[in-house]
Amino acid sequence: MSQASFATYLIGLREGLEATLVVSILVAFLVKSDRRRVLPMVWLGAGVAVLLSVGFGALLTFTQASVSGRNQELFEAVTSVAAVCFVTWMIFWMRGAARRMGGELRAGLGQALALGPAAVAAFSFLAVVREGLETALLFFTAARGAATATPLVAITLGVLTAIGMGYLLYATAVRINLGTFFRWTGALLVLVAGGILKYGVHDFQEAGVLPGLGTLAFDVTATVDPGSWYATLLTGMVNLTPRATVLEMAAWAAYVVPTMILFLRPAGSRPAAPPADAAATAPAQA
Q1: pLDDT tens string 110-132
Q2: Tens digits of per-residue pLDDT, 131-180?
Q3: 25/109 Cα distance (integer angstroms)
Q4: Residue 263 domain-assigned?
Q5: Within 10 Å of residue 227's Cβ, how many Cβ atoms?
Q6: Which residue spans traverse the membrane (predicted)?
Q7: Residue range of the domain that includes 142
């Protein structure tokens, strides 16, 4: 699996499941409270959020195609840094918010119901659009430069996998430890973000903003075929390429090492996470 396909599949899976859980919590709340008539407004808000996210991705692609030379390198570098900031905030936010997400969404939807159907659609839109915009930005930065449609297929499969998991959690007796899922996918996303930052630094170097483009940390392309299966696997799993500058690797290590330590550190005195069954069935509770 190529780096782009692995990264984009993971992005689609992680972000897709978050969005699916949000929608399923809202739907379950309305079903349990016998307010099915408002369900179309939830789907309307979620649908508009998806369309806006697709449009945002198209805008990024169009902007990239509209600039050239140094400006293109700068645009790609800035979007890479923005994507790293978003994914870092998202994995740490989800680490603590997963415990209270269901209650907060139900409380917010209850307030929206008191204001009317339009407020319900707006609440659904706001609850989903964050995930959608993050997905579009992360997909753009992880898949840019791909010569085939493989990354698009990969993120689509990731989203479809997430929808399937969300449906099984909502409608069947299947139980998934969501805390463990978000922990492991979050750790993998730290590696993906480190790779995106590494490419961003390279773009800044090519644009002349940062020095050291010719100062290599290593270059094993003479002995390691970049297209070989093992090089592709290494690149896909840890975002390391057979050739990298000193500054690229310094940025990669400076981000990945402390971020991974902070993300995986013990919970300490924080309240204990709910049991796996409770976490998995949260969307189905009113």
Answers
A1: 899 998 889 999 999 998 998 89
A2: 899 889 888 887 776 667 777 888 889 899 999 888 887 777 556 677 78
A3: 10
A4: yes
A5: 8
A6: 6-30, 42-62, 74-93, 105-129, 149-169, 181-201, 244-264
A7: 3-267
Residue 277 in any domain: the answer is: no
Alpha-carbon Rg of the chain, whole angstroms? Answer: 20
Look at residue 279 and tell me if it is in a domain.
no
CB 73 within 8 A of CB 207: yes
Give the Å distances, CA to CA, from 100 to 17, 23, 116, 169, 272: 16, 15, 25, 17, 12
How many CB atoms within 10 Å of residue 176? 17
Residues 6+ apart with CB under 8 A from 118: 41
Q: Pick the closest to residue 80 from 168, 178, 176, 199 (CA basis).
A: 199
State both tokens at 105: 């969404």
The count of structural domains within the chain is 1
